[in-house]
Amino acid sequence: MKLVIDSNVLIAAFAVRGLCHALFEYCLESHEIVLCEEIIEEVKRNLKEKVKIPPTLVAEIETYLRESASIEKPLLIGESAFEDKSDLPILGVAAASSSVYLITGDKALLALRRYGSTDIITPRSFWEAMRRIAND
User: Which domain CATH number covers 6?
Assistant: First the structure.
């Protein structure tokens, strides 16, 4: 299944060993992760500036993401579609890739609940949904 993982989830996956890290590892093994350049750039910027990861390690993470995920160009989304213009590419890549889920911790994106055919859910909700499917 195709999934878009938002930058905040990816940053958490590389910053600490927790739910986001486990979710990312699971998605690598069992699903197709779809990203766009805007997500990768935001991950790099925040890992350097906020998490204070050394630039050489950030470069390795970028390479890993590019090798592990499909990088797609987002569809252009009209500015009236969403208040936060910086999130338009995230919605655009979900639409372009026909992803089943957009996994994010962004409250504004989560408030949409769905964009086109993509469900927008938290990492915890995705994890629980996958556990239910596995147990059925």
Answer: 3.40.50.1010
Quick one: which of 42, 39, 59 has its CA closest to 50? Answer: 42
5 and 25 Cβ atoms separated by less than 8 Å: no
| Longest pairwise C-alpha distance within the chain | 44
Give DSSP secondary structure letters for the chain.
Answer: -EEEE-HHHHHHHHHSSSHHHHHHHHHHHHSEEEE-HHHHHHHHHHHHHTS---HHHHHHHHHHHHHHSEE-PPPP--GGG-S-GGGHHHHHHHHHHT-SEEE---HHHHHH-EETTEEEE-HHHHHHHHHHHHH-
- The pLDDT tens digits of the residues spanning 17-27 come to 899 999 999 99
Q: Which residues pair with 3 in a beta bridge?
A: 33, 101
Local confidence band at 78 (pLDDT 50, 70, 90 cut-offs): confident
Residue 110 domain boundaries: 2-135
